[in-house]
Amino acid sequence: MSDTTRRTFVTTAGLAAAAASALPALAQDTPPTPKAPTTPQAGAYPKPPFPNQRQPWPGLASRMSPRPDHGETSYKGSGRLTGKRALITGGDSGIGRAAAIAYAREGADVAINYLPAEEPDAREVVQLIEAEGRKAVAIPGDLRDEAFCRKLIVDATRALGGLDILVNNAARQQTRPDIGSISSEDFDATMKTNVYAPFWLSKAAVARMGPGAVIVFTSSEQAGDPSPDILEYAMSRAAVLNLAKGLAKQLAPKGIRVNAVTPGPFWTPLQVSGGATPEKLRMFGQSSPLGRPGQPAEIAGLYVAAVDPANSFSTGQIFGATGGGGQPG
Ligand code: NAD
Ligand code: MG
């Protein structure tokens, strides 16, 4: 222990002892504050370094090490979305899966979209939704195709008997070291998945939604503070944040709300299937003030809040879970 460290320690310990002896008798009788972590595992979530791993895109949550926590055993509902009908893109894994579990436990029927390669992850989510006694609808398909986006909204609305909630959550993120290595194919695929698809889906959904419906966009802290190695991805997160704010104003007279959620670093397949370099992945989340990545379970409550009818004055809002990093405005 260095001199400075020892001095700091002694000073702090001395202050604590002095404070304890100065406590009035009444305060000493007060029962201890219960230990209340925000989720059952909050104190024990994994920190970097993480084991080396790499999966082909789009990746599976079931093959990640450690496996992400999507709230499978921890999320408890309280009827906040009883009878609602929700479509979540990218609902097979990561943040979208956490939202799907939470919505089902809050009483909603849930349709998920994902890529055909993600069927094993999607099956797990379908089982989790059905275990709550809710209807689960699985609609695989590629969102880069406008015709598929329109069909997805039609099919989900038909299968659910209506559409109250659309969560535009699917995204593509592939790290590239410099602007010269981002091909036009890369740029196109990222924009089609992350910007065009949410636009196409929202357009088709609004035509079928009534008062009380809500659209949520997953954006990112990248919208306000872009990392240099995911340029076009960060652009796309800024674009949907802007769309959420503008669409909220446009749809307010119809009684349709629009909100955005902005995650910081989260432990999901997106990161292990090309979203981050091996070096970044190994220390993933370390640079956030909490010193670790978020687990999808830790953001599920914000997706519930963003659509909860009790929050009926909240439209055009940004709900953040950045682990202490900057929240885009
Ligand atoms: P994820 O890999 O679990 O989810 C992304 C999903 O996008 C995939 O499961 C896949 O189903 C879907 N997808 C991708 N391309 C598609 C296509 N062409 N057609 C249909 N579906 C497609 O990863 P995640 O991190 O949970 O990502 C969810 C959202 O969170 C994304 O919008 C992402 O931008 C955002 N986000 C993630 C982080 C993070 O650190 N993980 C940080 C900020 C924002
Ligand atoms: Mg997935």
From TrEMBL:
Q: Where is the signal peptide?
A: 1-27
Keywords of this entry: Oxidoreductase, Signal
Instruction: List the Pfam families hit by this protein, alphabetically.
Output: adh_short_C2
Tell me the segments the record calls region Disordered: 25-83
Source domain of life is: Bacteria
Q: Which PANTHER family match?
A: NADPH-DEPENDENT ALDEHYDE REDUCTASE 1, CHLOROPLASTIC (PTHR48107:SF16), NADPH-DEPENDENT ALDEHYDE REDUCTASE-LIKE PROTEIN, CHLOROPLASTIC-RELATED (PTHR48107)
Q: Which family does it belong to?
A: Belongs to the short-chain dehydrogenases/reductases (SDR) family.
Protein name per the record: SDR family oxidoreductase
